[in-house]
């Protein structure tokens, strides 16, 4: 490990991400889109034998030959994942358990229809084009994914986490991720040659996932209030016993980060995404996060790490793969279906689940579930590495994931501004 190289690529990437964010924000588009575009440019800009990635000694993954990137890329990828983990933790800090339960029914309908419809359409389009069931199942699994980190970033930037639409989107995204992981477990558990499914493994994954979420919800309702009361009584007892001696408060930031990492690791261990554990960890502290001033402290960490996550999304786009007319046509069809299936499916779920939602609210929820981000790319990478997905189909999924990630934020921002008009939106400054 070369410390100079790590510090160099962090300085360069963060500077370029900031510039991209500021420039794109001047057009009324969320800054994260500029950070993704910067990633695309970095990955594809070469001048003769020179490239910025080469200068920084970063080699991107090439799953077609089983290469997962060099050490510098692994370090960069880890920091990028920490960025989205802290983002979801901060969203959890603003999501109280009672608020999530208040949208439970509608969030469930949004998530289920947002999984079933994209999966069916993804499978159908590949069966029609190339009659390959394994390819079809992996595309269906990739279409199911929702990158909650993208939408959560837009919601936080606009300071609208307390709206009903935002709570429905976040709740549905958590359920969607659990369902998506189960779909991936089913597809990945199939024998590529024979199509067999390990039912026992899938059932265990499902039960463990549901039990994990249930335990965290139970802790939010029962354990956290008792711990808070105990800390208050202990502090009062110390003050009563020695009024002249100040009581040193517990560093709740350190406690919160430890819990965040622990639940994220546990979530990853049981087969869910780490961001689900991070979000649930944030909910454990939500009732007292303002009192402990956790939100601004976590925000400072997120500002540093999150741009790396969005750059990494852009780095996955190899524009050279889209020289084939056939690939471009399939990409166009898949992209249209990917957007329409989530927008219509999740919007329909919102309409069926909550009759009080107006048309703008339904549109917001539908668009908020559109971005696939890194989740779709991860599914595609698993398929390519296992031989269950061709390099052409992998390129299609990557394009679908990145384009939905790029177009959703500005459209979502526009819909939010229409329903909640105000002159107090957050702006991006140098």
Describe this protein's structure.
The chain has one domain (3-58, 70-242, 249-419): Up-down Bundle (Na+/H+ antiporter like fold), CATH 1.20.1530.20. It is 74% helix and 1% strand. The protein is built from 17 helices and 2 strands. Helix 2 (31-44) packs parallel to helix 13, helix 4 (71-93) runs parallel beside helix 12 (274-284) and helix 14 packs across helix 17.
Describe this protein with a few key phrases:
globular; Na+/H+ antiporter like fold; disordered C terminus; 74% helix
Mean pLDDT: 83
Number of continuous helical runs: 17
Helix percent band? over 70%
CATH topology: Na+/H+ antiporter like fold
Strand and helix order: HHEEHHHHHHHHHHHHHHH
How are the strands of the biggest sheet laid out side by side?
Answer: 1-2
- The total domain count is 1
Unreliably modeled segments: 423-430
Strand percent estimate: under 5%
- CATH class reads Mainly Alpha
A few lines on this structure:
This protein has one domain (3-58, 70-242, 249-419): Na+/H+ antiporter like fold (Up-down Bundle). Helix content is 74%, strand content 1%.
